[in-house]
């Protein structure tokens, strides 16, 4: 079995083990991104340690960011909050799969220059016990359209 095939088999086994262990998407993304980045760095640098190290670090950072992204259930809860909550009303939930906690407070309802409905809101995401607070705006073209978020 070639090096690339062994590496891909290792990635598959790692993903399976992480899923069985209940690891968060963020942790899984970090590990798989690091492994894949290290493999790519090894190939690019002809096995040099600098390529492996840089590939691993870049892959882990990218994998963690991808793993952090809100999943579909979180996006539905955010849309529900923007649709139903009054300005100043806080809604919170915890994603059982990722372990992330969300605290959303719509702060105002406005219309943009193009006539779209918009909601300004404060979003606090608690990841591994560390809060990240973002002020953002979500807009949509009609009551049935999905919200499009801009920070």
UniProtKB/TrEMBL annotation:
Task: Provide this UniProt record's keywords sorted from A to Z.
Answer: Signal
Q: Which residues form the Glycine zipper 2TM domain?
A: 29-70
Q: Which residues form the signal peptide?
A: 1-21
Alphabetical list of Pfam families matching this protein: Rick_17kDa_Anti
Spell out the GO cellular component terms annotated for this protein, sorted alphabetically and separated by semicolons. outer membrane
Q: Does the keyword field hold Oxidoreductase?
A: no
Q: Which InterPro entries match?
A: Gly_zipper_2TM_dom, Surface_antigen_Rickettsia
Q: Supply the name of the protein.
A: Glycine zipper 2TM domain-containing protein
In its UniProt entry, the species of origin is given as: Marinobacterium nitratireducens
């Amino acid at each position: 079995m070639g090096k690339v095939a062994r590496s891909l088999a290792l990635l598959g086994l790692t993903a399976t083990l992480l899923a069985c262990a209940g690891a968060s998407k963020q942790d899984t993304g970090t590990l798989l991104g690091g492994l894949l980045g290290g493999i790519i760095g090894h190939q690019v640098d002809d096995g040099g340690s600098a390529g492996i190290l840089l590939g691993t670090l870049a892959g882990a950072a990218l994998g963690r960011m991808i793993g952090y992204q809100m999943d579909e259930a979180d996006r539905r809860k955010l849309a529900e909050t923007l649709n139903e909550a009054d300005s100043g009303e806080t809604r919170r939930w915890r994603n059982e799969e990722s372990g992330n906690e969300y605290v959303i407070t719509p702060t105002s309802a406005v219309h943009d220059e193009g006539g779209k409905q918009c909601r300004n809101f404060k979003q606090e995401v608690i990841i591994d016990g560390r809060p990240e607070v973002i002020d953002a705006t979500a807009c949509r073209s009609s009551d049935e359209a999905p919200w499009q978020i801009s920070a």
